[in-house]
């Protein structure tokens, strides 16, 4: 789709009345739009006061209307040393890494997302996930370009079929912002365009259509919500037309890095293809802003069940101080914490890899201290395509006669009568 037709599609978005006390009208700065008089009032998108100050300073020629346009955000991504250093003072290490050629992943960050960490130092959580460091260039032995062996489970390009009833449809290799620990860094950000060649989608759709065992399709990428409305509707309508596809899921980081993309027009499309679920890649409580709250509210109001996926990252979110407010904040936004992953052994991301024991302690800090709904499942995605293995803190400490011995979240011991299980456990211990 051309930019012109995408722009036309965007301008046809329905009007949404202001509904939130956080909503600020486009006219707050009172500037004329660069496109002349509006014939239709655009939907109201939240602009937090901190963001308004940011774009007034760093994008002085932009308008609120542009700032809240997701296409403007993508067009104005910061991708080079020159662009990024206009906004933040880069450390010598960051400068060297940004200038180095042959990095495994391109650099890109939306102006919106950059605004969340622009005032913070090089070791701040979100900055570490977006701005490369020289540690990326020193991979360790156990790391691989494709740590999960996805290519081996790919019967056609752009599709991974590992579990019998689920398939992963990699609809694009484009993201609006590139995470430095990306598991798919071998493929994302490499192509010139958001849209893959038409035959790639066709092959993937044909494979799903001729494989009746697939009842659940996860549309991911890259980030599928960087595609145009028309492209997203094309994919969803084609999948919904396949009788054995019961559930469609979208995997995306868009509500965190580009919440402006969750327009009323997009939500109207998504609503047409229920049952449709969404897994949102969330990293840190700093991502929970009035803008992301508006995006989540629109999705949840459209009946889309929302779940979160978080990667446990050293120096970013590997502490209860980061993870507890993140999980509670997601719950407040109607996003059910779903998975907490140990960082995959992807090449150049070793400096992000926190020990699994840290993840166990974080789960322990959540369990019992906050609602069970706010406790994600800690998993390791096993190297080489073994799939997800759940890991739990140990609460069942042993047996005592016919009783099971439990240690609760406060470290106190309790007995629970269960002779059959106690006998089984004794048998296992003796074997
Ligand atoms: S949003 Fe997902 S696919 Fe895109 S760079 Fe981040 S981890 Fe990779």
Tell me how many strands there are.
Answer: 12
Q: Helix and strand succession?
A: HHHHHHHHEEHEHEHHEHEHEHEEEEEH
Helix content: 25-40%
Lateral arrangement of strands in the main beta sheet: 1-2-3-4-5-6-7-8-9
Please give the oligomerization state of what you see. single chain
CATH class (first level) name of the domain at 151-184 and 196-390: Alpha Beta
Mean pLDDT equals: 89
Instruction: Characterize the biggest β-sheet.
Output: 9 strands, mixed
**Which structural class matches the secondary elements?**
alpha/beta
End-to-end gap? 64 Å
InterPro entries: Aldolase_TIM (IPR013785), LAM_C_dom (IPR025895), Lys_aminomutase/Glu_NH3_mut (IPR003739), rSAM (IPR007197), rSAM_sf (IPR058240)
Biased composition (Low complexity): 1-14
Modified residues (N6-(pyridoxal phosphate)lysine): 388
Cofactor: [4Fe-4S] cluster; pyridoxal 5'-phosphate
Features:
431 residues, alpha/beta, TIM Barrel, 9-stranded mixed beta sheet, 3-stranded antiparallel beta sheet, 12 strands, globular, disordered N terminus, binds iron/sulfur cluster
